[in-house]
């Protein structure tokens, strides 16, 4: 029982990341009709926003302490972060400790701008080209972004720890007499993802802007005939999708230390998620994200891997094949998407 | 104006040289001029440094390359000479190798066997490299070693820890200075038993490729011999990044030790996940739960941050060693680059000196002469104490370091502390040990 609940939680937190990336992918596909293979790179850039902020907060000045020696026997240069000298050691240390949550504020404008520039600068020119061209150009872009990040941050993962207050383990099963210890930050991540997903849906459902975008997704030409500049709104949606992917990346940092190829690790799976959920269906993307996350978690348990060796690595693709055979449009896909 | 003169000394020298030439076995004297792949022409010799410059081990590759550049400087008589001054064999004079200035070319292994073979092939065929060295993965080392054997050049492997490199995949043209999985097990197990008790149940997570398999086998065998039981061994895909679904089953498995047979990004992530799940604070039947990382690297310890504190593992070399040779190397490297060298840098630097020294002692770049010079070579003064390059399998035998993640680091480099220097006798094994059986060195291949 404990093990089952643990794996469900594991599935939910991995599923949260899949769902958030797939949501962004679907938004872009649904609005602009572009298959964006650079979306994983946006997730990775989000995580590196948090790395950058933590580096900025840790910018230090050096003072030479003659009483201590460095590894070569020279006097040790002691580093003190500017933040600590400006705000006092305690406040400064707290700010540095909370750098990941703070990075959310830092990442939103950056991701919006990156999304906007990407769409206006490159992807715009590929709307009328075949999907294969779009895939190639966005995949190329992903590789370029990845290499840029590697050039500046190196190939090894960089730790972005959660704040001390949120980095322990929560004992969830205490009241029920079960032994379920789960990292607090992963619970925070699940909660944050749900919040972001509901926020995105509410934005589309309850604002005028969202209504126009939904109308545009359903029938772009008619909306344009009504005199609405739908392209501009779609560009904003691209920025928004980039921001969602970026935030998913920021918050994922404390779970797995960011490295330059983390985007690629998630990208392929997220595409499978989109296909299983149904191309163009937002609820489908979210549902499939959580579903596949949970399935993957269960497939990695010892009894699963001993029953069917290697099942943990193929389960998602296996499910994708079964879903596509039985429901070719995916779980919640609608007729007419990508079928012209 | 000078006129040709015949001096007594000149006549003697010429006579002696001619005598030696006649006395040498014909294959050797012929080969020392030509008759082997990429015989150096003119007054330079080219070495090929095949390191991961991209991909997940790129940072280690960068450190290896720094070490190679330093070694080339020292061989050519620039810089402070580093470990050339402490090396027991004092044949190298700082005038290149046998008077030929050392030049180098580099290749990118990308930590992929096929890419590594391609870059090694190009360095041999296009750039005329007479020796290939480097790498940070056993998969790559075994692939490139096979290629060098076929091409007829010497392969001095970089960081490779699988038993197979000098076990079932050993080759006459290949040499490994780095230690291996068996040695890690033999060094680590007694320390583990002493620190954590002999009644322990271990759960292994293992990277699913040659290195992971042989290390897991070695650690399990060594710990079981001291009374531990192995509850479970789960193979994890090399591409895995989130290990939470592998860690969660550990919690209720009854195990009280988790052994992570992971390296690089895998190790950083699995260790981070294990710590997140509270394994370090966990108690099982009144015993403190422990995590072990058998192959530790400082570069990776940096990646894992706080999580490495208190965790035991083994390493080939560490910059904080106080012997004269290690200090000379750290000083030389640290002065040039501003930070201490990694174990990968150390092994690569040492391999380059060992190759150059073997050539100088053999008096030839011919791979077969170099193999003969390295086989059974005993040396000291390269940072690991007295060391033997065993003739039977081309594996170096030397002391092994058991290290622990430091609780209170004084600097960003001060991440590991040496718990024990395990003496060489304790990590030695017979060449036909079952974990290394099945291979055949074959004959040295001088190539063309």
UniProtKB/TrEMBL annotation, chain A:
Principal location: membrane
Transmembrane regions: 16-35, 42-61, 95-114, 192-213, 233-254, 266-295, 307-325
Q: Which GO terms describe its cellular component?
A: plasma membrane
Please state where this protein is localized. Cell membrane
What is the protein's membrane topology class? Multi-pass membrane protein
- Gene Ontology MF term list: transmembrane transporter activity
User: What's a Pfam family in this record?
Assistant: BPD_transp_2
User: Example GO biological process term?
Assistant: amino acid transport
CDD domains, per the entry: TM_PBP1_LivH_like
Q: Which family does it belong to?
A: Belongs to the binding-protein-dependent transport system permease family. LivHM subfamily.
Instruction: Write the protein's name.
Output: Branched-chain amino acid ABC transporter, permease protein
Automatic annotation (TrEMBL), chain B:
Please list the GO biological process terms of this entry.
amino acid transport
- According to the record, the signal peptide region is 1-30
Residues in Leucine-binding protein domain copies: 44-406
Pfam families listed in its UniProt record: Peripla_BP_6
The source's superkingdom equals Bacteria
Per UniProt, which keywords does this protein have? Amino-acid transport, Signal, Transport
Similarity comment: family membership? Belongs to the leucine-binding protein family.
**NCBIfam families referenced in this protein's UniProt entry, alphabetically:** TAT_signal_seq
Stated name of the protein: Branched-chain amino acid ABC transporter, periplasmic substrate-binding protein
Q: What is the lineage of its organism?
A: Bacteria, Pseudomonadati, Pseudomonadota, Alphaproteobacteria, Rhodobacterales
């Amino acid at each position: 029982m404990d093990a089952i609940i643990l794996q469900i939680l594991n599935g939910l937190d991995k599923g949260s990341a899949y769902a958030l990336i797939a949501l962004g992918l679907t938004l872009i596909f649904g609005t602009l009709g572009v298959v964006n293979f650079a979306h994983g790179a946006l997730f990775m850039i989000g995580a590196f926003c948090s790395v950058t902020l933590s580096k900025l907060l840790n910018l230090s000045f050096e003072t030479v302490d003659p009483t201590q020696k460095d590894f070569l026997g020279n006097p040790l240069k002691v580093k003190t972060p500017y933040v600590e000298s400006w705000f006092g050691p305690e406040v400064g240390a707290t700010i540095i400790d909370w750098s990941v949550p703070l990075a959310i504020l830092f990442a939103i404008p950056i991701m919006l701008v990156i999304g906007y520039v990407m769409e206006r600068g490159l992807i715009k020119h590929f709307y009328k080209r075949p999907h294969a061209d779009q895939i190639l150009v966005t995949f190329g872009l992903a590789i370029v972004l990845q290499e840029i990040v590697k050039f500046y941050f190196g190939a090894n993962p960089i730790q972005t720890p959660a704040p001390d207050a949120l980095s322990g383990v929560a004992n969830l099963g205490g009241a029920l007499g079960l032994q379920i210890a789960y990292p607090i930050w992963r619970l925070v991540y699940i909660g944050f993802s749900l919040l972001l997903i509901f926020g995105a849906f509410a934005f589309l459902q309850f604002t005028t802007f969202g209504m126009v975008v939904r109308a545009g997704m359903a029938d772009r030409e008619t909306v344009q005939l009504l005199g609405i500049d739908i392209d501009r709104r779609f560009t904003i949606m691209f920025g928004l999708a980039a921001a969602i992917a970026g935030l998913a990346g920021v918050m994922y940092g404390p779970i797995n230390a960011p490295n330059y190829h983390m985007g690629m690790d998630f990208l392929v799976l997220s595409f499978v998620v989109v296909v299983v959920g149904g191309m163009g269906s937002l609820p489908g993307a979210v549902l499939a994200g959580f579903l596949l996350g949970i399935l993957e978690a269960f497939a990695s348990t010892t009894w699963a891997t001993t029953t069917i060796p290697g099942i943990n690595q193929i389960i998602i693709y296996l499910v994708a094949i079964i879903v596509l055979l039985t429901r070719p449009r995916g779980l919640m896909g609608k007729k007419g998407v990508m079928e012209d | 104006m000078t006129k040709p003169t015949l001096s007594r000394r000149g006549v003697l020298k010429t006579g002696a040289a001619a005598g030696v030439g006649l006395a040498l076995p014909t294959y050797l004297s012929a080969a020392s001029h030509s008759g082997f792949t990429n015989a150096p022409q003119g007054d330079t010799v080219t070495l090929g440094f095949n390191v991961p410059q991209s991909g997940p081990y790129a940072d280690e590759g960068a450190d290896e390359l720094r070490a190679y550049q330093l070694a080339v400087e020292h061989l050519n008589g620039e810089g402070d000479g580093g470990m050339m001054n402490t090396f027991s064999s004092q044949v190298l004079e700082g005038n290149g190798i046998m008077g030929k200035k050392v030049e180098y070319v580099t290749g990118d292994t990308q930590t992929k066997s096929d890419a590594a073979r391609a870059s090694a092939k190009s360095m041999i065929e296009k750039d005329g490299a007479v020796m290939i060295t480097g790498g940070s993965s056993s998969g790559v080392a075994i692939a490139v070693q096979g290629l060098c054997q076929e091409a007829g050049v010497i392969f001095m492997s970089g960081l490779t820890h699988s038993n197979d490199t000098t076990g079932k995949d050993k080759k006459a043209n290949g040499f490994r200075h780095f230690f291996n999985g068996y040695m890690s097990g033999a060094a680590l197990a007694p320390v583990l038993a002493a620190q954590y008790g002999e009644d322990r149940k271990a759960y292994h997570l293992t990277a699913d490729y040659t290195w992971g398999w042989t290390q897991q086998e070695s650690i399990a065998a060594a710990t079981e011999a001291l009374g531990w039981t192995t509850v479970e061994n789960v193979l994890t895909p090399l591409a895995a990044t989130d290990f939470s679904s592998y860690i969660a089953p550990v919690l209720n498995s009854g195990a009280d030790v988790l052994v992570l047979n992971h390296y690089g990004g895998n190790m950083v992530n699995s260790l981070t996940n294990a710590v997140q799940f509270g394994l370090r604070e966990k108690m099982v039947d009144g015993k403190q739960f422990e995590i072990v990382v058998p192959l530790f690297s400082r570069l990776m310890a940096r990646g894992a941050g706080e999580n490495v504190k208190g965790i035991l593992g083994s390493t080939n070399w560490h910059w904080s060693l106080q012997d004269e040779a290690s200090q000379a190397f750290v000083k030389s490297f640290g002065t040039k680059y501003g930070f201490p060298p990694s174990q990968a840098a150390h092994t690569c630097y040492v391999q380059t000196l060992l190759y150059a020294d073997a050539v100088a002692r053999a008096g030839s770049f011919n791979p077969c002469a170099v193999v003969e010079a390295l086989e059974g070579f005993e040396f000291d003064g390269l940072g690991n104490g007295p060391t033997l390059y065993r003739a039977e399998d081309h594996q170096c035998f030397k002391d092994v370091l058991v290290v622990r993640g430091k609780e209170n680091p004084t600097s960003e480099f001060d991440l590991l502390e040496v718990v024990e220097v395990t003496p060489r006798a304790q990590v030695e094994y017979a060449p036909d040990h079952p974990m290394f059986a099945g291979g055949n060195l074959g004959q040295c291949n001088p190539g063309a």
